[in-house]
Batch of 2 targets.
Target 1
Amino acid sequence: MTKFKTLDDLPADLSGKVALVRVDLNLPMKDGSATDVTRVEAAKPTILELSDKGAKVLLLAHFGRPKGQRNSTMSTSYVQGDVDRVLGREIMFISEVAGPSVEQSLGILRNGDIGLLENTRFWPGEEANDPDFAKAIAAHGDFYVNDAFSAAHRAHASTEGLTHFLPSYAGRAMEAELKALDAALGNPEEPVAAVVGGAKVSTKLDVLTNLVGKVQHLIIGGGMANTFLAARGADVGKSLCEHELVDKANAIMDAADHAGCTVHLPYDVVVAKEFAANPPSLRTSNVHEVAADEMILDIGGQATEALADVLKTCKTLVWNGPLGAFETEPFDQATVSLARTAAALTQEGSLVSIAGGGDTVAALNVAGVADDFTYVSTAGGAFLEWMEGKPLPGVEALKA
């Protein structure tokens, strides 16, 4: 694994030092409070560890898309109460990210206290990764910690720029993420299987192209599978299908053949004439017997069992995207069944399972197995770009 400095490389006593810590506080809100504080929970170990070692901790975060201008509805002050509650400590809100106000606040903060800086995206220099802006923020800190993998695919001042001016470290959540990703595709135990689902091939072309050269089994589900089935000559009726990408699908399957990667497509599917919960037209069909007025909405039971058998032969699994239209019953059955198989194999110690992406996390929660996977990433875009094999600026900047 690539070497990163972590909190273990810092002194045990940080009294009097100022830690600038990039976290993800872009929380979903309703009626003035967060509906999900998972991202705060993820950053909690890093924040409290630095605080308990005596550092003054200044939290850097974005909230929404204010496009380089102050917007009162996107102030990080909105999430202060949620951060207070999760950390179990009272934190100070600071309405700037640099300058006299920050310096004055540092004079008020005691060793171990925590401050929450204003939304970094209120300043154009953040998304432009302006070195002068990064330098101004860095002037208040003794060292920098990035604990926001979910923002690591952005080369912004608070994710990449600060590393040029301060000693930089990976926080505990970032450290865990990087170790998990290395175990999944960086230096995995083979055979490796990848489950890639979702609605459209077009959104995951780069993912599929990258994976066929890295895994031994590629399991394709969701609406994406329909495009591949069409490429194999199946009539998919009125299913969601990107017929214009059939040639791309064939190219990916050819590349997989040359790389020794087996592409798994369903041979039985769950179909219906309408997309609704438990429709009367619901049936299971062979992929070559889908009627013109039917749509494929999930993988069938026989194919799901076959995929479970594939996972039993593997040592590593990386999963992104559901196998069917899992939000609507009963089209969640294949996703739930295969997820439970993966979880059971993980718990018995025969499989390292890494999953990520918003829909994936939701699907694993539906299956009740999110806690049984080796690692579940809450990062969306960053996880997808990692699966595409792209370097992530926020990660690259931390390399020792």
Note: DSSP finds 14 helices and 17 strands in the chain.
Target 2
Amino acid sequence: MCYDLIAKQNRKEEKQMSLTNSILSLFKMTDPNITVTGVTKKRCPNGQRIHVVHANLSYQLVKCPHCGHKSLIKNGTHVSHLRLGTLSGGRYEMQLRRQRYQCQHCLKTCGAKTNLVRRNETFTHNVKHQVIVLARDMLTSKEIAKICGISPSSVQRILNANIHLAYRVKQLPPNLCFDEFRSCNHLMSFNCCDAVSHRRIVTLEDRLSKDIIDYFEARYSVQERAKVQTITIDMNAEYASFIHRLFPNAVTIIDRFHIIQLAGRALDNVRTRIIRTFQDKHSRIYRILKSQWRLFHLAEEKINDTKLIYLRGINEYMTQQNAIDLALDEFPEFKTVYQTYQGILTAIHQKNATGFKNLITNYQVAGNRMDVTISTFVKNGSAVLNSCRYPYSNGPIEGLNRKIKVLKRSCFGFRNIHNFFIRISLIHE
């Protein structure tokens, strides 16, 4: 009879231990002093269902943490309500009954401690980790709060407490990219990244030259800034005005995409000006210039001159080269601008700095928008030609800015720029 009672007690303890291990492993808890006693359900006044895990925390404490004497006795328990991570939706809590102790020497009390939470906090580390992981997936604070069973303000507090904006990177990379993006309240912010590793270096609240200069001069010595070799920028003249001051040995590179974009806009300006002069809106040339504008932006090697295709808008079968020739033969001015655009496109694609230089040097003024474009290239001559001499571009930072725009759109915008920058640092890790 005695053996049966002992076996029954052992089976009960094994079952309790199995329940404890299963629940603790589900929530990734590693504290061996916690024992789960059961799981219940209850409803909040708002109708939300809460799963409550009942557990005890107790261990043998020998010395008093206040006076150091070995005179501790058990002195009741204290119930703590901890917020756990979610498993399959809903809200999970732990009702943890902590053992209290009293010192008979100094009469002070203390309690059992656990590594699940910090002192005087209710959110476990598991909840905080879950919030940060969901924030990296560009979810809104309300969506994260709904998944984790907490409030949106608690989500932001967790992010602010656990994510810190870096004062500076340890070492400036030799190749940098500069660009800007629209952040909060119609403000344009500055962004900088490594042109090779695509790692974000810094994001500033505005793009004012004064603030950019103050940031780099305050955080990096002259020797550190002198190691920067190249700076890739767009057509922003403000950047070019202070780059040599901050980075005395750096070479300025105008991004190739912005060079082609500026020349393409000049081509479109002349094309649309010609379109406005047409009286007959149904003529073939008008329809070519109006509907097949993409053909004029193609590189010469990509234009099909052998296969007949049906061109919508013209409603005829012809080659792409034939359609282009019909428009160019009709308007010599547009033909000159088109040839200049193709020369720029070819020089950029072939990385031919000499050919690019000859093109902008020998350009003849024609009294159209292309004149302004060529004069801009001449004004920024060395920086424009460096786009053909170096392999770097603003592609990496444009990709980072694209992620920022997706974050803004998915979160329906931000009002607090500090909270916005915390989310930016998360998606760029």
Note: Residues 2-26 form the longest helix (25 residues).
